[in-house]
Amino acid sequence: MTFTTLGALLVGRRVGFRGLLAAREELGSVDAPRNTLRLIGQIAGITLLVEALGAVVLAFGFIRGGLGYVESLFQGVTPRTAGFSTVDYSQMRDPTLLLQIGLMFEGTAPTSTGGGVKVTTLALLVLVVLAQARGQEEVSAFGRQVPRQLTQKVLAVLSLSALLVLAATLALMVSDYLALLPALFEVSSVFRTVGLSMNVTPELTAFGKLLVAGVMFLGRIGPIILILALSARQKMRGYVYSQEDIAIG
Fold it and tell me: Is the pTM higher than 0.90?
């Protein structure tokens, strides 16, 4: 969304209000929509500067030898968006694969270029659970109350994400006769644009490849765009329904 908005500005196109809202939601910004363009310009400039400096530093390091990362630390970071594979994931044990899938589903922090449901989304979910456990009606943290609309958005994003990942995993298991973990690993990776694989993607059928391509597209922009579309169609009603309790748990 950042690149698309920036590209539109570079070619002289006008970005509408809905486009600004979509960009603001993707960036995780709480600022006014009119300040989104300035934020996008700052992101582009900082990104180019950091990448240029990093390329210079790494160039000197690569001349002397290999990467030299601490393997365990690196394997905990790369599933969250980097997708840089240094080991054969098909040889990993099931507990390690489950941990990697969880890290891929969590993703990165807001305003980053990575995917995932974002660490703040999971943090808000924890706050919601804690508030319910304490019998509190409002969700609060660090002396501030979290808006109810934001908690509803968190539940919607998590529900849609989990539903899409599970449905795509089941479809891949049926169409390509994959076991649960390989199918779940591939779907989680493409859904969060990570790029890691258990070496099964090249062997997928045409349907399987189209499926993972569609999941990658939906995983990157689908939840935010869907929520924006639903929010834009909300209409004020002149009445409210009476409340009714239902049994849960």
Answer: no
Q: Is 222 found in the same domain as 112?
A: yes
Q: DSSP characters for the chain?
A: -HHHHHHHHHTTPPP-HHHHHHHHHHHT--S-GGGHHHHHHHHHHHHHHHHHHHHHHHHHHHHHSS----HHHHHHHGGGTT----S-GGGS-HHHHHHHHHHHHH---TTSS--SS-HHHHHHHHHHHHHHHTT-SSEEETTEEEPHHHHHHHHHHHHHHHHHHHHHHHHHHHHH---HHHHHHHHHHHHTT-----S-GGG--HHHHHHHHHHHHHHHHHHHHHHHHHHHT----S--PPP------
Domain residue limits at 249: 67-249
**For 104-127, what is each residue's pLDDT tens digit?**
888 777 766 666 677 888 888 888
Q: What is the pLDDT of residues 146-205, one digit of tens each?
A: 888 788 878 888 888 889 899 999 999 999 999 999 999 999 988 888 888 898 888 899
Shared domain check, 160 and 82: yes
Residue 94 shares a structural domain with residue 165: yes
What does the alpha-carbon distance between residue 169 and residue 179 come to, in Å, rounded to a whole number?
10
Q: Is 123 helix (H, G, I), strand (E, B) or coil?
A: helix
* Paired tokens of 215: 């999941």
111, 60: one domain: no
136, 89: one domain: yes
pLDDT digits (tens, 9 = 90+) for 34-66: 677 777 777 788 888 999 998 888 888 777 775
